[in-house]
Each structure stands twice: as structure tokens, then as C-alpha cells.
Specification:
Peroxisomal Thiolase, Chain A, domain 1, two-stranded antiparallel sheet, Beta-ketoacyl synthase-like protein, transferase, 3-oxoacyl-[acyl-carrier-protein] synthase activity, Beta-ketoacyl_synthase, Ketoacyl_synth_N
């Protein structure tokens, strides 16, 4: 199988991550239940008329993909693979609201057309005139990893040379209220700088888009090499360490070779136990990193963690704001990412220095 390299990144999040020259030098803290994105100047990438017709998630996806391609110095790609847990929620809610308000009469089709989950991938393809493979995965908390796995398989088998892969999710008012009612969102405003000390149920929700250009060709600008990706719908805490050890062994590595582990802690006292089991157990002597206090929790938040791992390997530095423990690492060659959401859709991603 061919090697797969990350050659470009484009991330829009609750931090100023759309500037690829910076690496969490200025961190924004929130005291809230939901974290909004820091928007770039969309008109620099999308015409004003087109931008007005696009919901936030579509705009984020289009701009993040543009940034990733610029970073890799590409004008087009062979395929576009997108992951989204909830799709274009804002347009979905608009259409359903009009359906109710107008008694199912005199409906305009715009919101319905733009409410489909593959709208983001379609808009990206239209913008860069990509007529190749275009697929969207909707696999809840493993949506981004599903897209990543597809891209890795296609590149490794030689079917494509450059693939744009990413994850995007947006918040919408009604859906957000439902998540608050069922207590998936924290009941009180929480300071993101002390998120893991909250000791309460629920997470601080967020939104964002993370896109990456993956290629079989290494460049001077390459960030890291994608070694392996695995997803599991269900996995008990009792079997977690054993499954991670097996995953590493299957890919020619072991726990002692992991220089840093990136964990998806989100401050939910009920489900952070999965991460605590690893941080206090098999990875107790490993440099530990976390990130959801910077971007919030959403179905494709792991794309932010993927960006973080790639940047760490390229810059050979770990920002203080993401350090979970005080372990020091002289060199950063191999990073493992682990994520899950509410005890389901577990994912492991192994990255190595180019």
C-alpha cells in the first residue's frame, strides 16, 4: 500500500485557526454553553451573492477546503470526501419551519435543496470544477474518520493522487435547544479554560470545519503521514486498553513508541471516564494532549484534533494550552488520536512524522 501524506490544512473553528501561519498563539476563552466559530472574511473566498444563499456550514466547508488546497498549492483535486454528523441543519430547520407556518403550501425549494447532507461537498466541487468522486459520510461521531478511512484506502490502492477530505458541522437554534433539553449540553455556563474541572454532565457544544489535502506524494510542505484509521461503533471501557494495544500492534507500533496521545475530553463527567482510563493507565507516562476546550463538542470535532496532531508533528512543538499533563517529549515522531462521543463511535488515528 502507498504512503498517505497530509499536504494541506484548512480549519475554521472557535479559534483563529484559519491562519495556517499561526499555531494557537492567541487563544480565545469562553464562558458559555456553546462556542461560536471565529469567521474568516468569507467574501475573500466566495462572492457576496453566493455567500448570502449559503448557510454557515456550507460557507465554512467551502472556505476551509480552499485554505487546505492553497496550503498544498493545488488548484483542483481528484476526489472530495466529506464527513458530517448532522448535515446542513440551518437550512433543514428553515424548510421545516416554513412547512409548518405555511400549512405545507407556497414553499420555495431553496432551503430544501440546500438542506441535504452532501450540499457542502457539492458546493466545493462546483467551485473548483471537480468532476471526480464526491462522497459524504454521515456516521455520527465517526463521520470524519469514515471519510478519512475512505480517502486513505483510495490513495493507498492508487485510485487517486490528491484527495480533499474533511469534516463539517454547524449549530442550528432548534436542534441546539433539543440538545439542551436532553442535557447533552451543560446546564450552566462553563469557563473553557477550566472545562475538565467542571465535574458536571454534558459538554460545551461547538461547530466548525476541518479540511485536508491528502496525497501519495510527499511535499516540502507536508505535515505528517497517515498510518492507520479505525472506527468502532461500540467498545466497553473494560476492553478499551486492549483494543488500543492491538490497533498499535497491527500497524507496527506499540505504546512505548507513542510520543503523544491526543484525547477528546469534553468535560462531560459521565463519559470522560474513557479518556481518564487511558491517561491514568496505559498512557500514564506519555505526553497527553486535549483540544475540545478550544473548539467545543460536535460530531466532527475530531477533525480539529487531526489538525492539531498534524501541526504538532510539523512544528515539533505542543502549545501549553493543549497539554493535559506535564510529561515532556524530546522528539515528536508518532501521535495517536482517540475520540468517542457519549460512549459510542470510538476512533483511533495513527500519525507519524514525515
Amino acid at each position: 500500500m502507498k504512503k498517505v501524506f497530509i499536504n494541506g490544512c484548512g480549519v475554521i473553528s472557535a479559534q483563529k485557526t484559519f491562519d495556517n501561519k499561526a499555531f494557537l498563539e492567541e487563544v480565545i476563552t469562553y464562558n458559555d454553553r456553546v462556542m461560536p466559530v471565529v469567521n474568516p472574511v468569507y467574501k475573500d473566498f466566495i462572492s457576496g451573492g453566493a455567500a448570502r444563499r449559503m448557510a454557515l456550514g456550507v460557507k465554512m466547508g467551502v472556505v476551509a477546503s480552499n485554505l487546505a488546497m492553497q496550503d498544498a498549492q493545488l488548484d483542483s483535486v481528484d476526489a472530495i470526501i466529506t464527513g458530517t454528523g448532522m448535515g446542513c441543519l440551518i437550512d433543514s430547520e428553515k424548510f421545516l419551519s416554513k412547512l409548518i407556518d405555511n400549512n405545507e403550501e407556497f414553499l420555495t425549494p431553496t432551503s430544501f435543496i440546500q438542506s441535504t447532507h452532501n450540499t457542502v461537498g457539492g458546493q466545493i466541487a462546483l467551485g473548483i470544477q471537480c468532476k471526480g468522486y464526491n462522497f459524504t459520510y454521515v456516521h455520527s461521531g465517526a463521520s470524519f474518520e469514515s471519510a478519512l478511512l475512505d480517502a486513505q484506502l483510495q490513495l493507498s490502492s492508487g485510485e487517486e493522487e490528491n484527495i480533499l477530505v474533511g469534516g463539517v458541522d454547524e449549530n442550528a437554534p432548534h436542534t441546539l435547544e433539543i440538545h439542551k433539553l436532553i442535557r447533552f449540553v451543560k446546564e450552566e455556563n462553563t469557563d473553557t479554560s477550566s472545562l475538565l474541572e467542571s465535574n458536571t454532565s454534558g459538554a460545551i457544544f461547538g461547530e466548525g470545519a476541518g479540511f485536508f489535502t491528502l496525497s501519495t506524494k510527499e511535499q516540502e510542505s507536508s505535515y505528517a503521514q497517515v498510518i492507520a484509521v479505525e472506527t468502532l461503533n461500540t467498545l466497553s471501557k473494560e476492553n478499551l486498553e486492549e483494543r488500543i494495544i492491538s490497533f498499535l500492534e497491527e500497524n507496527g507500533s506499540n505504546v512505548s513508541e507513542i510520543d503523544a496521545v491526543i484525547l477528546g475530553n469534553n468535560g462531560d463527567v459521565d463519559f470522560d471516564r474513557y479518556y481518564n482510563l487511558l491517561s491514568e493507565g496505559v498512557f500514564a507516562n506519555t505526553q497527553q494532549v486535549y483540544y475540545k476546550h478550544l473548539c467545543g463538542e460536535y460530531n466532527t470535532a475530531s477533525s480539529f484534533g487531526f489538525w492539531l496532531g498534524a501541526k504538532i508533528l510539523k512544528t515539533q512543538s505542543i502549545p501549553e494550552v493543549v497539554k493535559l499533563n506535564k510529561k515532556q517529549t524530546s522528539t515528536l515522531k508518532t501521535i495517536l488520536l482517540y475520540n468517542q462521543y457519549r460512549g459510542e463511535n470510538h476512533s483511533f488515528t495513527l500519525l507519524k512524522q514525515c
